[in-house]
Amino acid sequence: MTGMHLALDLSFSHTEGRWAIPGSFVGRDFPDVRAYMELAQMADRGGVDLLFFGDGSGIPSTWQGSRDGAVEWGVQWPRHDMSPVIAAMSTVTERVGFGLTYSSTFMHPFYVARLLNSLDHVTSGRIAFNVVASTRLADAQNYGYDQLLEHELRYERMEEFIGVCKALWRSVEPDAILRDRETRRFADPTKVHPIDHHGRFFDVAGPLASVPSPQIEPVLVQAGASPRGIQASASFADLVFGFGTSLAGMQRHRSLLDEQLTAQGRDAQAVGILWDLQAVIGATEEEAQNRKQTILDAWTPEMVAVSLSHNSGYDFSTLPDKFRLGDLRESIIAAQASPAGLVGTLVQELGEDHLITNEDFFSHGWAAATGVDHMLVGSATAIADELEETFAATGSRGGFMISSPSAFPSGFAAVVELLIPELERRGAMAERAPGPQTLRQTLCA
C-alpha cells in the first residue's frame, strides 16, 4: 500500500463565520497576506503536500434571487483571486504545493495557460490547476451569460480548454531556450511551434510566449462527480478531488473513475483521488465535540439556504411543502444547474420516488451545508483510524483534502500539530524524498 497525501482546503477559511470563532486571527482579517504566509510556513514544516484554493467570482444570489443573505452572513464571499497570495506564500516555503482554481466555462485558455506558467516559475514548480465547469448563475452573469451553459457542453468546453492549455504549455520545447552568450542566440526557432487550434469553442494560434516552466505543465486536477464529469477527469486529470459523503459513494466514484481511465488507455493505478472532508480535531474527544458545537452554532437557517442554492445553482426557496426527489432532480437538470451535491446524495440514499417534506429537505441540507455529513470529529488517534480505513477501502491511491470548519488558523493547526504526527507515527503518510521537489514529483510519482 502506498502512503496517503494530505492537502488543506483554504477555500472558505475566512467565510461562514470562521473569522469570529475563538481561535481565529485577531487583527489580521482576510485578505491579509501575512496570515496566509504564516499558515503556509506551518504547513510546509508539518509535511502538508498541497494548499488548495477553490474559487467563485460571483456573490451567491440564487436563494430568493437576492445576494443579501450571502452579504449579511458572509456565505462564500468575499472571494479574491488568490494567485498573488500563492506567489507570496511560495517565497517563504520550500516543499508545499499550491492549487489554484479557474473556470473553463468562462475563462480563456491562453490567459490561464500563461498565468499558470508564470506561477510555476515563481513557485519553482509547485503549482496545481483545478479546472472547473461552473454551475453558478452568479458567476456566469459576471462573464456576460444570462443563463448557464448546458451541462454536457460545459464538459465539452472543459476538455477543449485543457487540450489548448496542454498544447500551449508544450509549444515551446523544453530545450528551446539557448541563452548562448557567445553567439547571442536566445532560442532555437525550430523548437517553438504554433498550435493553430480551431475548435468548437476556441481559436488559438499560439505558441505560448513564455519560457517553459519547471513542471512544463501544472498538476491537473478535476472534481467532476457526475458520469460526464468523471469521464472528463479521466481524460486529463493527474489527480482527482472526490467528495466523501459516504464510503459506498466514494467506492463508487473510485470504481467509475477506474473504468473510465482504463477505457481511455490510462493507468488507473497512477491517478489518485484526494477525498474532501472536514475535520474537527481536539486533544481529546470532549474538546473536539465542543469545537464542533461552536461551529454549528455559527450557522443560521438563512446561511444554510443560501449555501445550498448557490452550490447547486437552483433556488430552493421555490420548493413546495412536499415533493418527489426525482422530480426535483429533473427540475434542476432542466435549469442547467447541478444535480450532484445534496440532491444527488439524497436520490442515491432514499431513491427517486421518495417523497420528502420541505422541512426534512432543509434538515438534510443543514448537514450538507455545515459539512456534518462528511465531518470527522474527535481526537487525532480516532481520526487517523478513520483515514487509514477509508484510504484502504478506496484503493490506497491519493489521500485527503481536509477543510476546517473551525477557526482560521487554529483548525488547520490541529491538523498539522496533532493529526499529521499521529499518521507519521503509524507510517501512513506518503514518503517524501529529501530536498526540493516539484509538486508533480510529490503527488504523482
Essential attributes:
single chain, 445 residues, 8-stranded parallel β-barrel, 13 strands, globular
Tally of distinct domains: 1
Distinct helical segment count? 16
Catalogue the unreliable spans. none
Task: Characterize the largest beta sheet: strand count, sense, and whether it forms a barrel.
Answer: 8 strands, parallel, barrel
- Percent in strands: 5-15%
The geometry reads as globular
CATH C-level class: Alpha Beta
Spatial strand order of the main sheet:
1-2-3-4-7-8-9-13
How would you describe the overall organization of this protein?
The protein has 16 helices and 13 strands. It has 445 residues and is an alpha/beta fold. The chain has one domain (5-289, 375-444): Luciferase-like domain (TIM Barrel), CATH 3.20.20. Strands 1-2-3-4-7-8-9-13 form an 8-stranded parallel β-barrel, surrounded by 7 helices. It has a two-stranded antiparallel sheet with strand order 5-6. Strands 10-11 form a two-stranded antiparallel ribbon. Strand 7 (219-222), helix 7 (227-236) and strand 8 form a beta-alpha-beta unit. The model has no long low-confidence stretch (mean pLDDT 94).
